Amino acid sequence: MLEIQVEEFYFMVQDIIESDEFIKMANTKHHIKTSVYDHCLKVAFLCYKHHYRFQCKTDLYELVRSALLHDYFLYDRINKESGDNINRFKHLFRHPYTAVNNAIIDYPDLTPAEQNAIKRHMFPIVPIPPVTKCGWLICYYDKVASIGDYLHIQKWKKELVEYCPQIFR
Ligand SMILES: [Fe+2]
Ligand SMILES: [Fe+2]
Description:
With about 170 residues, the protein is mostly helical. Helix content is about 60%, strand content about 0%. It is built from 8 helices and 2 strands.
């Protein structure tokens, strides 16, 4: 990936990743070895790269923004002191709805397609599929990213660290 493309990615995500709520996600553990911040950034970057690699016709801004907000549930499920720790089963089914509700509050201009992509990213665990190509891409790359998180694969960070180190918290 070219430096200019990584800079474009940063430009697209900057307003969200520098918001107070998103920064807090850097302290929320996710998939054992990562944070919600890194996981969401990773899904957004994988979708962004897919868009260029396969010359997608999808709206790039819509794709990146909904990927970034797909796990915007804003609670710490694991930390017992947070007061929000709900069991894994409830979290699995409920968090896409919590994420979309939080995202609508903080980003009221979220399009219906972006909302659908966030709400449906847990397909097939939540058995209602997304309705757009963006939604399917997020659904797919969320699985890819999650497996990588559990295996602690850090390869995705290389280009971002090289061209855009300020992106990491
Ligand atoms: Fe999720
Ligand atoms: Fe996710």
